[in-house]
Write a structure and sequence with these properties.
The chain is α+β, with helices and mostly antiparallel strands. It contains 13 helices and 13 strands. Strand 10 and strand 11 form a beta hairpin. It binds a DNA duplex through strand 2, strand 3, helix 3, helix 8 and helix 11.
Length: 363
Amino acid sequence: MSSRVILHVDFDYFYAQCEEIRKPELKTRPVCVCIFSDRGGDSGAIATCNYKAREFGVKSGMPIVFAKRKLETINSSFLPADFSYYEEISGKAMAIIQEYGDVFEYVGRDEAFLDITKKSEMSFEKAAHIGQQLKNKIKSSLGISCSVGIGPNKLIAKICSDHKKPDGLTIVKPNEVRDFLSPQLIRTIPGIGKKTEERLDELGINSIKDLESLQIFDLNKMFGKKNASYIFNASRGLDEEPVTKREGSLQYSRIVTLKSDSSDFEFILPTVLELCKELQKIIVEENKMFRSVTVQLVQTDLTSKSRSRMLKNPSNSLEELEKNSKVLLENILREQNTQVRRIGVKVSELSEFKGQSSLTSYF
DNA sequence: CCCTCGATCAC
DNA sequence: CCTCATATCGAGGG
Protein backbone atom coordinates (compact mmCIF):
# COMPACT_ATOMS: atom_id res chain seq x y z
CA MET A 1 0.00 0.00 0.00
CA SER A 2 1.54 3.24 -1.13
CA SER A 3 0.40 6.47 0.37
CA ARG A 4 1.35 10.01 -0.39
CA VAL A 5 1.33 13.45 1.19
CA ILE A 6 0.34 16.15 -1.30
CA LEU A 7 0.31 19.91 -0.82
CA HIS A 8 -1.54 22.52 -2.87
CA VAL A 9 -0.75 26.26 -2.69
CA ASP A 10 -3.06 28.95 -3.95
CA PHE A 11 -2.13 32.63 -3.69
CA ASP A 12 -4.97 34.69 -2.26
CA TYR A 13 -6.79 37.07 -4.66
CA PHE A 14 -3.48 37.07 -6.50
CA TYR A 15 -3.55 39.94 -9.02
CA ALA A 16 -5.27 42.27 -6.58
CA GLN A 17 -2.85 41.32 -3.82
CA CYS A 18 0.06 42.11 -6.15
CA GLU A 19 -1.41 45.58 -6.65
CA GLU A 20 -1.76 46.02 -2.89
CA ILE A 21 1.92 45.20 -2.49
CA ARG A 22 3.11 48.01 -4.67
CA LYS A 23 0.51 50.42 -3.33
CA PRO A 24 -0.24 49.52 0.29
CA GLU A 25 -2.76 52.35 0.60
CA LEU A 26 -5.06 50.28 -1.64
CA LYS A 27 -5.51 47.72 1.12
CA THR A 28 -8.21 49.68 2.89
CA ARG A 29 -10.61 49.72 -0.02
CA PRO A 30 -12.07 47.57 -2.78
CA VAL A 31 -9.56 46.78 -5.55
CA CYS A 32 -10.63 45.30 -8.89
CA VAL A 33 -8.07 44.16 -11.43
CA CYS A 34 -9.67 44.58 -14.84
CA ILE A 35 -9.14 43.19 -18.29
CA PHE A 36 -10.38 45.98 -20.51
CA SER A 37 -11.43 44.80 -23.96
CA ASP A 38 -10.60 46.74 -27.10
CA ARG A 39 -14.00 48.39 -27.20
CA GLY A 40 -13.06 51.30 -25.02
CA GLY A 41 -14.96 52.63 -22.04
CA ASP A 42 -15.62 50.03 -19.38
CA SER A 43 -16.06 47.10 -21.72
CA GLY A 44 -14.30 44.12 -20.21
CA ALA A 45 -14.30 41.86 -17.19
CA ILE A 46 -12.92 41.59 -13.66
CA ALA A 47 -9.92 39.26 -13.46
CA THR A 48 -9.66 39.30 -9.66
CA CYS A 49 -10.67 41.55 -6.81
CA ASN A 50 -9.69 41.79 -3.17
CA TYR A 51 -11.93 40.73 -0.29
CA LYS A 52 -13.13 44.28 0.36
CA ALA A 53 -14.59 44.29 -3.15
CA ARG A 54 -16.11 40.84 -2.63
CA GLU A 55 -18.07 42.19 0.33
CA PHE A 56 -19.99 44.25 -2.18
CA GLY A 57 -20.75 41.28 -4.41
CA VAL A 58 -17.98 41.73 -6.95
CA LYS A 59 -16.68 38.46 -8.43
CA SER A 60 -14.06 37.52 -10.98
CA GLY A 61 -15.41 37.20 -14.49
CA MET A 62 -18.02 39.85 -13.83
CA PRO A 63 -18.39 42.65 -16.41
CA ILE A 64 -16.53 45.75 -15.23
CA VAL A 65 -19.70 47.82 -15.59
CA PHE A 66 -21.52 45.56 -13.13
CA ALA A 67 -18.73 45.86 -10.59
CA LYS A 68 -18.68 49.64 -10.94
CA ARG A 69 -22.38 49.74 -10.29
CA LYS A 70 -21.97 47.70 -7.13
CA LEU A 71 -19.21 49.99 -5.90
CA GLU A 72 -20.80 53.21 -7.13
CA THR A 73 -20.84 54.92 -3.76
CA ILE A 74 -17.57 53.46 -2.47
CA ASN A 75 -14.05 54.77 -2.83
CA SER A 76 -12.54 51.92 -4.85
CA SER A 77 -9.86 51.20 -7.46
CA PHE A 78 -10.26 49.68 -10.90
CA LEU A 79 -6.83 48.86 -12.25
CA PRO A 80 -5.83 47.44 -15.63
CA ALA A 81 -4.21 44.01 -15.38
CA ASP A 82 -0.41 44.15 -15.48
CA PHE A 83 0.46 40.56 -16.24
CA SER A 84 4.22 40.95 -16.55
CA TYR A 85 4.33 42.34 -13.01
CA TYR A 86 2.22 39.48 -11.66
CA GLU A 87 4.41 37.05 -13.60
CA GLU A 88 7.50 38.43 -11.90
CA ILE A 89 6.07 37.96 -8.41
CA SER A 90 4.71 34.56 -9.34
CA GLY A 91 8.13 33.44 -10.58
CA LYS A 92 9.81 34.44 -7.32
CA ALA A 93 7.13 32.69 -5.29
CA MET A 94 7.33 29.52 -7.36
CA ALA A 95 11.10 29.42 -6.93
CA ILE A 96 10.58 29.39 -3.17
CA ILE A 97 7.75 26.87 -3.19
CA GLN A 98 9.70 24.42 -5.30
CA GLU A 99 12.23 24.00 -2.51
CA TYR A 100 9.64 22.61 -0.14
CA GLY A 101 8.73 19.50 -2.10
CA ASP A 102 10.16 16.36 -3.64
CA VAL A 103 8.23 17.04 -6.84
CA PHE A 104 6.87 20.42 -7.96
CA GLU A 105 4.00 20.94 -10.39
CA TYR A 106 3.24 24.41 -11.71
CA VAL A 107 -0.47 24.81 -12.40
CA GLY A 108 -0.81 28.52 -13.09
CA ARG A 109 0.48 31.92 -12.02
CA ASP A 110 -1.13 31.54 -8.61
CA GLU A 111 -1.25 27.81 -8.06
CA ALA A 112 1.05 24.79 -7.60
CA PHE A 113 1.20 21.26 -6.24
CA LEU A 114 4.00 19.67 -4.25
CA ASP A 115 4.53 16.02 -3.50
CA ILE A 116 5.97 16.15 0.02
CA THR A 117 5.77 12.44 0.80
CA LYS A 118 9.49 12.14 1.47
CA LYS A 119 10.08 15.58 2.94
CA SER A 120 7.28 14.98 5.45
CA GLU A 121 8.37 11.40 6.11
CA MET A 122 4.72 10.48 5.52
CA SER A 123 3.68 12.34 8.65
CA PHE A 124 0.80 14.78 8.33
CA GLU A 125 2.03 16.58 11.44
CA LYS A 126 5.36 17.23 9.76
CA ALA A 127 3.48 18.11 6.59
CA ALA A 128 1.49 20.73 8.48
CA HIS A 129 4.76 22.17 9.66
CA ILE A 130 6.11 22.33 6.12
CA GLY A 131 2.91 24.03 5.01
CA GLN A 132 3.21 26.68 7.70
CA GLN A 133 6.89 27.28 6.95
CA LEU A 134 6.11 27.67 3.28
CA LYS A 135 3.39 30.20 4.03
CA ASN A 136 5.69 32.14 6.36
CA LYS A 137 8.49 32.21 3.84
CA ILE A 138 6.30 33.52 1.02
CA LYS A 139 4.84 36.12 3.33
CA SER A 140 8.16 37.34 4.73
CA SER A 141 10.01 37.44 1.43
CA LEU A 142 7.29 38.66 -0.92
CA GLY A 143 4.48 39.93 1.27
CA ILE A 144 2.02 37.55 -0.35
CA SER A 145 -0.47 35.55 1.66
CA CYS A 146 -1.57 32.20 0.37
CA SER A 147 -3.82 29.31 1.26
CA VAL A 148 -2.42 25.83 1.59
CA GLY A 149 -4.13 22.47 1.53
CA ILE A 150 -2.58 19.14 2.47
CA GLY A 151 -4.09 15.73 1.83
CA PRO A 152 -3.36 12.21 0.61
CA ASN A 153 -3.81 13.18 -3.07
CA LYS A 154 -4.10 16.18 -5.41
CA LEU A 155 -7.88 16.22 -5.28
CA ILE A 156 -8.05 16.51 -1.50
CA ALA A 157 -5.11 18.95 -1.32
CA LYS A 158 -6.84 21.23 -3.81
CA ILE A 159 -10.19 21.11 -2.04
CA CYS A 160 -8.37 21.82 1.22
CA SER A 161 -6.58 24.92 -0.07
CA ASP A 162 -9.96 26.27 -1.12
CA HIS A 163 -11.60 25.31 2.16
CA LYS A 164 -10.27 28.18 4.23
CA LYS A 165 -9.30 31.41 2.48
CA PRO A 166 -7.56 33.77 2.66
CA ASP A 167 -4.40 32.80 4.56
CA GLY A 168 -5.67 29.29 5.25
CA LEU A 169 -3.93 26.08 6.15
CA THR A 170 -6.10 22.98 5.98
CA ILE A 171 -4.91 19.45 6.54
CA VAL A 172 -7.01 16.38 5.97
CA LYS A 173 -5.54 12.99 6.84
CA PRO A 174 -6.56 9.85 4.98
CA ASN A 175 -8.91 8.68 7.73
CA GLU A 176 -10.62 12.09 7.79
CA VAL A 177 -11.32 12.32 4.08
CA ARG A 178 -14.81 10.83 4.19
CA ASP A 179 -16.13 13.13 6.93
CA PHE A 180 -14.46 16.11 5.36
CA LEU A 181 -16.08 15.58 1.95
CA SER A 182 -19.54 14.23 2.75
CA PRO A 183 -21.27 17.43 3.83
CA GLN A 184 -19.73 19.65 1.13
CA LEU A 185 -21.48 20.77 -2.04
CA ILE A 186 -20.62 18.85 -5.19
CA ARG A 187 -19.35 22.10 -6.66
CA THR A 188 -16.34 21.96 -4.35
CA ILE A 189 -14.98 19.10 -6.46
CA PRO A 190 -12.70 20.56 -9.12
CA GLY A 191 -14.07 19.58 -12.51
CA ILE A 192 -17.66 19.87 -11.36
CA GLY A 193 -18.73 23.24 -12.67
CA LYS A 194 -21.95 25.06 -13.39
CA LYS A 195 -23.29 22.65 -16.02
CA THR A 196 -22.57 19.45 -14.13
CA GLU A 197 -23.97 20.98 -10.97
CA GLU A 198 -27.22 21.90 -12.74
CA ARG A 199 -27.69 18.44 -14.18
CA LEU A 200 -27.10 16.76 -10.85
CA ASP A 201 -29.31 19.25 -9.05
CA GLU A 202 -32.20 18.07 -11.22
CA LEU A 203 -31.73 14.67 -9.61
CA GLY A 204 -31.69 16.18 -6.15
CA ILE A 205 -27.96 15.59 -5.82
CA ASN A 206 -26.46 18.46 -3.85
CA SER A 207 -23.90 17.18 -1.39
CA ILE A 208 -20.94 14.93 -2.02
CA LYS A 209 -22.68 12.37 0.17
CA ASP A 210 -25.60 12.42 -2.30
CA LEU A 211 -23.16 12.10 -5.18
CA GLU A 212 -21.63 9.02 -3.65
CA SER A 213 -24.95 7.23 -3.88
CA LEU A 214 -25.02 7.34 -7.69
CA GLN A 215 -24.20 4.17 -9.60
CA ILE A 216 -21.28 4.25 -11.98
CA PHE A 217 -23.67 3.01 -14.66
CA ASP A 218 -25.88 6.09 -14.35
CA LEU A 219 -22.90 8.42 -14.21
CA ASN A 220 -21.64 6.79 -17.40
CA LYS A 221 -24.92 7.55 -19.17
CA MET A 222 -24.95 11.16 -18.01
CA PHE A 223 -21.35 12.23 -18.35
CA GLY A 224 -19.49 9.70 -20.47
CA LYS A 225 -17.04 7.10 -19.35
CA LYS A 226 -14.05 9.22 -18.42
CA ASN A 227 -15.95 11.93 -16.54
CA ALA A 228 -18.10 9.32 -14.82
CA SER A 229 -15.18 7.46 -13.34
CA TYR A 230 -13.57 10.73 -12.30
CA ILE A 231 -16.74 11.83 -10.48
CA PHE A 232 -17.30 8.39 -8.99
CA ASN A 233 -13.81 8.32 -7.51
CA ALA A 234 -13.72 11.99 -6.54
CA SER A 235 -16.92 11.71 -4.50
CA ARG A 236 -15.08 9.07 -2.47
CA GLY A 237 -11.98 11.21 -2.13
CA LEU A 238 -9.98 8.93 -4.43
CA ASP A 239 -7.44 10.29 -6.87
CA GLU A 240 -4.28 8.68 -8.18
CA GLU A 241 -2.97 11.53 -10.34
CA PRO A 242 0.74 11.92 -9.75
CA VAL A 243 2.36 15.29 -9.11
CA THR A 244 4.46 15.77 -12.22
CA LYS A 245 6.77 18.49 -13.37
CA ARG A 246 5.08 20.32 -16.25
CA GLU A 247 6.89 20.63 -19.50
CA GLY A 248 5.91 23.07 -22.21
CA SER A 249 2.34 23.86 -23.22
CA LEU A 250 0.49 21.66 -25.69
CA GLN A 251 -1.09 24.64 -27.40
CA TYR A 252 -0.97 28.40 -27.57
CA SER A 253 -3.93 30.63 -28.35
CA ARG A 254 -4.81 34.30 -28.51
CA ILE A 255 -8.26 35.78 -28.69
CA VAL A 256 -9.35 39.42 -28.73
CA THR A 257 -12.55 41.41 -28.83
CA LEU A 258 -13.10 43.31 -32.07
CA LYS A 259 -13.53 47.08 -31.92
CA SER A 260 -17.08 46.47 -33.13
CA ASP A 261 -19.10 43.41 -34.13
CA SER A 262 -18.59 42.53 -37.77
CA SER A 263 -18.86 39.77 -40.32
CA ASP A 264 -16.66 41.50 -42.86
CA PHE A 265 -13.59 39.51 -43.86
CA GLU A 266 -11.55 42.62 -44.71
CA PHE A 267 -12.34 44.14 -41.33
CA ILE A 268 -11.44 41.04 -39.34
CA LEU A 269 -8.41 39.81 -41.28
CA PRO A 270 -5.86 42.35 -39.97
CA THR A 271 -6.65 41.32 -36.39
CA VAL A 272 -6.22 37.67 -37.28
CA LEU A 273 -2.86 38.40 -38.86
CA GLU A 274 -1.71 40.23 -35.74
CA LEU A 275 -2.66 37.26 -33.61
CA CYS A 276 -0.72 35.02 -35.99
CA LYS A 277 2.35 37.20 -35.50
CA GLU A 278 2.09 36.99 -31.73
CA LEU A 279 1.68 33.24 -31.76
CA GLN A 280 4.46 32.62 -34.25
CA LYS A 281 6.79 34.70 -32.09
CA ILE A 282 6.02 32.46 -29.12
CA ILE A 283 6.48 29.35 -31.23
CA VAL A 284 9.95 30.45 -32.27
CA GLU A 285 10.91 31.57 -28.77
CA GLU A 286 9.85 28.23 -27.37
CA ASN A 287 11.63 26.33 -30.12
CA LYS A 288 8.44 24.63 -31.26
CA MET A 289 6.64 23.68 -34.44
CA PHE A 290 2.86 23.52 -34.88
CA ARG A 291 0.91 21.10 -37.03
CA SER A 292 -2.63 22.30 -36.36
CA VAL A 293 -4.12 25.77 -36.80
CA THR A 294 -7.51 26.82 -35.45
CA VAL A 295 -9.50 29.99 -35.96
CA GLN A 296 -12.05 30.48 -33.22
CA LEU A 297 -14.68 33.14 -32.81
CA VAL A 298 -17.30 34.31 -30.40
CA GLN A 299 -20.51 35.52 -31.97
CA THR A 300 -22.69 38.44 -30.90
CA ASP A 301 -24.87 36.06 -28.91
CA LEU A 302 -21.69 34.86 -27.14
CA THR A 303 -21.84 31.36 -28.59
CA SER A 304 -18.56 30.23 -30.10
CA LYS A 305 -17.38 28.48 -33.23
CA SER A 306 -14.09 27.11 -34.45
CA ARG A 307 -12.54 25.76 -37.62
CA SER A 308 -9.24 23.95 -37.68
CA ARG A 309 -6.95 22.16 -40.09
CA MET A 310 -3.96 19.87 -39.80
CA LEU A 311 -0.91 20.68 -41.88
CA LYS A 312 0.99 18.11 -43.91
CA ASN A 313 4.14 18.84 -41.94
CA PRO A 314 5.00 20.63 -38.73
CA SER A 315 5.88 24.27 -39.33
CA ASN A 316 7.02 27.35 -37.49
CA SER A 317 6.62 29.76 -40.37
CA LEU A 318 4.57 32.92 -40.11
CA GLU A 319 3.52 32.66 -43.75
CA GLU A 320 2.19 29.16 -43.20
CA LEU A 321 0.27 30.26 -40.12
CA GLU A 322 -1.17 33.33 -41.83
CA LYS A 323 -2.11 31.44 -44.98
CA ASN A 324 -4.03 28.80 -43.06
CA SER A 325 -5.66 31.26 -40.70
CA LYS A 326 -6.84 33.28 -43.66
CA VAL A 327 -8.46 30.29 -45.34
CA LEU A 328 -10.06 29.21 -42.08
CA LEU A 329 -11.40 32.72 -41.53
CA GLU A 330 -12.91 32.75 -45.01
CA ASN A 331 -14.54 29.38 -44.41
CA ILE A 332 -15.94 30.23 -41.04
CA LEU A 333 -17.29 33.61 -42.19
CA ARG A 334 -18.96 32.06 -45.20
CA GLU A 335 -21.20 30.02 -42.89
CA GLN A 336 -21.82 32.94 -40.54
CA ASN A 337 -25.26 34.36 -40.05
CA THR A 338 -24.67 36.27 -36.84
CA GLN A 339 -21.90 38.82 -36.40
CA VAL A 340 -18.52 38.22 -34.83
CA ARG A 341 -17.68 39.75 -31.45
CA ARG A 342 -14.33 38.14 -30.66
CA ILE A 343 -11.77 36.45 -32.87
CA GLY A 344 -8.93 34.11 -31.98
CA VAL A 345 -6.21 31.88 -33.37
CA LYS A 346 -4.75 28.74 -31.83
CA VAL A 347 -1.76 26.60 -32.73
CA SER A 348 -1.58 23.05 -31.44
CA GLU A 349 -0.12 19.62 -32.14
CA LEU A 350 3.19 21.11 -31.11
CA SER A 351 6.56 19.44 -31.46
CA GLU A 352 10.15 20.39 -30.79
CA PHE A 353 11.73 22.47 -33.51
CA LYS A 354 13.70 20.48 -36.04
CA GLY A 355 15.66 22.25 -38.73
CA GLN A 356 14.04 22.12 -42.13
CA SER A 357 14.70 18.70 -43.57
CA SER A 358 13.25 16.96 -46.56
CA LEU A 359 13.42 13.29 -47.35
CA THR A 360 16.00 13.95 -50.01
CA SER A 361 18.34 15.70 -47.60
CA TYR A 362 19.17 12.35 -46.05
CA PHE A 363 20.95 11.27 -49.23
C1' DC B 1 -6.69 5.13 -35.99
C1' DC B 2 -6.91 10.15 -37.38
C1' DC B 3 -9.31 14.43 -37.76
C1' DT B 4 -12.79 18.14 -36.67
C1' DC B 5 -15.77 20.52 -33.67
C1' DG B 6 -18.46 21.75 -29.74
C1' DA B 7 -18.73 21.61 -24.73
C1' DT B 8 -16.99 22.03 -20.23
C1' DC B 9 -13.99 23.73 -16.74
C1' DA B 10 -11.59 27.29 -14.55
C1' DC B 11 -8.10 30.93 -14.86
C1' DC C 1 -22.92 43.34 -20.26
C1' DC C 2 -19.79 39.02 -21.02
C1' DT C 3 -11.58 38.78 -20.58
C1' DC C 4 -8.28 35.43 -21.65
C1' DA C 5 -5.73 30.76 -21.97
C1' DT C 6 -5.33 25.76 -21.50
C1' DA C 7 -6.65 21.08 -21.32
C1' DT C 8 -9.66 17.35 -22.00
C1' DC C 9 -13.59 14.61 -23.56
C1' DG C 10 -16.94 12.68 -26.63
C1' DA C 11 -19.50 12.50 -30.90
C1' DG C 12 -19.35 12.05 -35.56
C1' DG C 13 -17.09 11.19 -39.80
C1' DG C 14 -13.60 9.17 -42.37
